[in-house]
Predict the structure.
Amino acid sequence: MSLTDTPYVNVAKLKMIFDVEEPKEPAFIQELLEDCRQLIELEPKNKWPLYMRSLVLMEYRPIRSHSEIVDNLKLLAESLDTKRVELYKSLISRQKLNFSIREQFARLLSHESDELVVRYSELTSLEGVEFLAGLVGSADFSGNQLKEIHRVVLPNLHSLTVNENPIESMK
């Protein structure tokens, strides 16, 4: 294999972007999470402690706390902070995209397969997929909530499947 056959991939950067490894957690984080939990119990209708807890979990425990993060964001979107429903949907979408990419990360890096499959994951955006430019040749985003398909910057992409999405525009 020549050098031109293997695309350059900044593995450390990809691991950070897609939360493949959780960062070292500062000592105060556990206390902050506990304080948020107590505030949530005291004021269950207050969106701020739940939002703060979710942000901290996304930053420091995205793998271990994936389900809690998604559940928290859904609760915020559906009942505690309905004015920002699109923000929460976007955050959920990114968490689910990252989760799916984490599951496929080793295979994509090994060049065993260039197929990225993220089906029925409630994705509202493909934001972030462009960082996999040198790795993805085929992508399947069927059954999500994609309304717009912006130009996906994946130069090696030869197959894109977006069936069963409520697509309104393609740019």
Notes: The mean pLDDT is 94. The first strand starts at residue 115 and ends at 117. Residues 85-109 form the longest helix (25 residues).
